[in-house]
Specification:
This protein has about 210 residues and is α/β, with parallel strands linked by helices. The protein contains eight helices and seven strands, in the order H-E-E-H-E-H-E-H-E-H-E-H-H-E-H.
Length: about 210
């Protein structure tokens, strides 16, 4: 059985995703009704600066909701484990500057919007060279990258190695497919990646969102 500090740490890491899950659950039905109505009219919407079709918006919402449901189930299993009670930590507001590298940034629109709602500033880059250029001209607290891009199947790891060689203290996270998260985890750790996951909720949970002024 986990010690009390380990249990408290596990609960705290899942606290704010539960809050996010509850909010999304409450909003899901009205959002779905709006999406279904708008899809018939072939409307588009803007999320985090990206224009999405109703089908794209609906699919991103479905993935987020499915992911959150899995995380809530995980939280319920932990909470059911006998042990000392632990209070959930209040989610903190973020002030982080994030560089998100993905050749299809519209796929992350809802995640970017979530981070911006928490106070983060998110800048996007489409390629490794674009990301490195932005890193030389501005200061960032976190880098998030996909894994595969037209420039290479392991572009995310290539970027992580280049960042590690010149900015060893800058945390890099990989948000990728489940296959890549499971099969390239060891390589990612060796390349200095701070975290790799295919879960949107896990990604949001693992980001170090507090920054000292």
């Amino acid at each position: 059985m986990e010690s009390a500090p380990q249990l408290i740490s596990s609960l705290a890491s899942l606290a704010w995703p539960l809050v996010f899950a509850v909010l999304l659950y409450k909003l899901f039905e009205p959002i779905r009704s709006l999406v279904e109505s708008a899809r018939a009219r072939k409307f588009t919407i803007k999320v985090a600066g990206n224009e999405l079709s109703m089908d794209e918006a609906s699919e991103q919402q479905r993935i987020l909701l499915s992911d959150l449901q899995a995380k809530v189930a995980e939280l319920e299993r932990i909470a059911a484990t006998p042990g000392p009670a632990a209070a959930f930590a209040e989610p903190s507001r973020s002030r982080k500057r994030i560089l998100w590298v993905d050749d299809r940034p519209s796929n992350n629109s809802y995640l970017v919007a979530t981070l911006e709602d928490r106070g983060a500033s998110v800048t996007t880059a489409l390629t490794t060279s674009d990301a490195l250029k932005k890193l030389t001209h501005a200061s960032f607290d976190i880098v998030i990258s996909d894994m595969a891009r037209p420039e290479g199947e392991h572009a995310g790891l290539d970027l992580a190695r280049k960042i590690r060689s010149s900015m060893p203290d800058l945390p890099v996270f990989i948000f990728c497919s489940r296959w890549a998260a499971e099969n390239l985890h060891a390589q990612a750790v060796a390349d200095g990646v701070s975290g790799i996951t295919s879960s949107a909720t896990s990604l949001l949970s693992m980001l170090p969102m507090e920054r000292a002024d």
